[in-house]
Design a protein that fits this description.
This protein is an alpha+beta fold. It has 14 helices and 37 strands. It is globular, with a radius of gyration of 25 Å.
Length: about 700
């Protein structure tokens, strides 16, 4: 291990105090929570968190404010109850923003419902759901005051997005409906996929409405002519023009890397390009006066995120980036008025709302005490977000602009209120080349100062992911389960992560598994120098790109790690690129290099290349339905490890995609990971390591 001088973290004493006081939560905002929330937050934390508790976690997403901001609708994702096997279903709830009345469920819990959108008059809530008689998810509507849901669409494919015209006279929606030619080909069996030209293009429709409901006998009409694949849509305030994000092909790679911005009249026609863009695109917005379009985009084709705020005049002229060099990654944007945007951005290990002056490009922070927000919605004076803290998963928070703080309105996980948690803080260290880095550190439950603990390193995926200082525990990253088992848990934001601007995100280009992995080793050394961890007892567990890190830990850097969990991971860059659904996205924005153009480099950074160095005990986990990282990647390294007589176990989960979605699988994985680390990291003597 390379020696590192003590770095001296001034917050360390605060962390230790936090560990001792973790039985009672601290307020997440300066605005008092709703009364039912306050009661939950006051509960003494005396019970032990279990994998079953984590598998039972509900979470909030898809927040939507009613016109005027009096209510916020949201989706609550509710896991299937154990011991029954199943996936989570989603329910739509609503809560007044004044915080005096508890939330109530609107949708029927027998059917998953999601993507709530209010009608312009606020009287009706539309959403998407698949119910008896539906082959695919359709748009449904019900009165905000309650009642039976009524189906509004009858499409031959799942509706992907929908929005109202401003005057309520129509509903626009996108569905990837197969063409007559495609249907005929499938029926006849002449449906070979040639040159990977798979998928059906998203088609844009308008459903006429009258008195708040579909017109009797009216049929939807297709708006966007031609062969574009429509991905997303926004409506101009006039209601006569639509803003589209669309691509020329319907593949995952083309959606991610090669989409563009177009406009089309509501009456229909060929979409016209609005402005030239390059690389990834994200959220869209149109100003209240219809004169300006804002969108999130990339710095260039090789940017791994769409985190820069751009504005362009509605005629496609005068495109400009607003504060493009800010060390942040924007994720959502809304027009507050014609000259000001409200932007939600990741900055470091937090999220932050900003008021952005469209004319000057200046930023002013808003709502400084907001939680870590993963979704948001906005009216002129009200902001709602799905936010989390170190003490609870995502819940509904509401704040009033400009700076009156945010208030928590929901409690979705009463069963977590009495669970003991390890104290969580931001940890900062310096890389060998001088770059300052941050990550999230969680101390063991019952932490005692002066004790060196075993370390579990949980690197995020992407690599453009980021670990934020909110709720960290989920099935694939069971942070507090490991803290409960007596581990220090370290989640490093290595170079290449989001949240610090384009240059930082691109700092790993053509160097995957190079300096970015050394960043993690430097962080481990810094923790050892602080006396927090035993550097001879370290394990790493990650998924996707985090799993790639774990594979490197188990091979190239095996001498540093006693155990590793390789989850849904790339283990051979050449074979992965030839079989993944994101060949272009991966090569352009992660490597910034096609592996076939430098096979020596790609092979040298493949964990399988370094199998002769492997001594670390490895748990390999993969979902059999994973198309992002095909399961052959996990099987390949498992067989190599077994051939080299390295302790290894392979766990393949049927039906699982790029992660875990079934509750029984989630519990099984958390138990296996804890047992693997306990055996090979915590309990093994140094001479038995790996």
């Amino acid at each position: 291990m390379r020696a590192r001088p003590p770095l001296g973290h001034p917050w360390l004493g605060l962390v230790l105090l936090g560990a001792a006081a973790c039985a009672r939560p601290t307020p997440s905002t300066t605005t008092p929570p709703a009364p039912w929330v306050a009661r939950a937050e006051a509960t003494a934390r005396t019970e032990t968190l279990t994998p079953e508790d984590v598998a039972a976690i509900s979470s909030v997403r898809d927040v939507a404010l009613a016109p005027g901001g009096r209510h916020v609708a949201f989706v609550r994702s509710v896991p299937a109850p154990l011991p029954d096997k199943g996936r989570a279903h989603s329910e739509i709830w609503i809560v007044p923003t004044h915080g005096r009345t508890p939330p109530r469920r609107l949708s029927n819990p027998a059917f998953s419902s999601y993507a709530p959108v209010f009608s312009p008059d606020g009287a009706t809530l539309t959403f998407r759901s698949r119910r008896p008689g539906d082959d695919h998810a359709q748009v449904y509507a019900l009165p905000v005051e309650g009642g039976e849901a009524v189906r509004w669409t009858e499409t031959e494919a799942t509706v992907r997005t929908h929005a109202f015209l401003p005057d309520g006279s129509g509903l626009v929606y996108v569905a990837p409906v197969p063409t007559a030619r495609a249907k005929e080909a499938e029926a006849s069996g002449r449906d070979a996929i040639v040159d990977e030209a798979g998928g059906h293009r998203g088609r844009l429709y308008l459903l006429p409405l009258e008195d708040g409901a579909p017109e009797a006998g009216a049929q939807p009409r297709e708006i966007a002519k031609g062969e574009l694949h429509v991905i997303d849509v926004r409506v101009f305030p006039s209601g006569r023009r639509l803003l589209l994000r669309a691509a020329k092909k319907a593949t995952i790679d083309h959606e991610m890397m090669y989409s563009g911005l177009y406009t089309v009249p509501v009456e229909g026609g060929e979409p016209a390009p609005l402005v030239a863009t390059e690389g990834k695109l994200g959220d869209l917005a149109v100003s209240p006066d219809g004169k300006t379009v804002a969108f999130l985009g990339a710095h260039d084709l090789h940017d791994s995120t769409s985190g820069i705020v751009y504005v362009v005049d509605a005629d496609g002229s005068n495109k400009r980036a607003l504060a493009p060099d800010e060390p942040m990654t924007a994720s959502r944007l809304f027009f507050r008025d014609p000259t000001h945007l409200v932007v939600l951005a990741i900055r470091g290990t937090r999220t932050q709302f900003y008021d952005v002056d469209v004319r000057r490009g200046t930023l002013r922070p808003l709502l400084p005490n907001a939680p870590v927000c993963s979704d948001a919605d906005l009216t002129r004076t009200v902001v709602a977000c799905a936010g989390s803290t170190a003490l609870h998963p995502r819940e509904v928070f509401v704040g009033r602009l400009p700076d009156r703080g945010m208030r928590r309105l929901t409690v979705s996980n009463e069963h977590l209120a009495n669970k003991r948690l390890g104290a969580q803080k931001v940890f900062s260290w310096q890389a060998a080349d001088g770059l300052r880095l941050e990550g999230i550190l969680t101390l063991p439950v019952g932490y005692r100062a002066g004790t060196r603990y075993p370390l579990a390193v949980l690197p995020h995926g992407g690599p453009e992911g980021v670990s934020l200082d909110g709720w960290r525990t989920r099935a694939t990253y069971p942070v507090q389960i490991l803290a409960t088992a007596g581990y220090v848990v370290f989640e490093p934001n290595y170079r290449g992560s989001a949240g610090r601007g384009h240059a930082f995100a691109a700092a790993d280009h053509r160097d995957l598994g190079g300096k970015e992995f050394m960043d993690v080793l430097d962080g481990i050394d810094a923790l050892a120098a602080e006396g927090l961890i035993d550097p001879s007892r370290v394990g790493m567990a990650g998924w996707s790109y985090g799993g790639y890190f774990s594979a490197l830990a188990a091979t190239m850097h095996s001498e540093r790690f006693r155990a590793a969990m390789i989850g849904a991971a790339v283990t051979d860059w050449v074979s992965f690129t030839g079989t993944t659904e994101i060949e272009h996205e991966n090569s352009l924005v992660h490597w910034n290099l096609w592996p076939w153009d430098d096979l020596d480099l790609a092979w040298s950074r493949s964990p399988i290349r370094h199998i002769d160095k492997a001594k670390t005990a490895v748990l390999v986990v993969h979902g059999l339905a994973d198309t992002r990282v095909p399961p052959g990647q996990g099987i390949e390294i498992y067989r190599a490890l077994r051939h080299k007589k390295v302790p290894a176990q392979l766990v393949l989960y049927p039906r699982e995609p790029h992660g875990l979605v079934e509750n029984v699988h989630s519990v099984d994985f958390m138990e296996r990971l804890s047992a693997w680390f306990d055996r090979h990291v915590k309990d093994a003597a140094p001479e038995d390591a790996g």
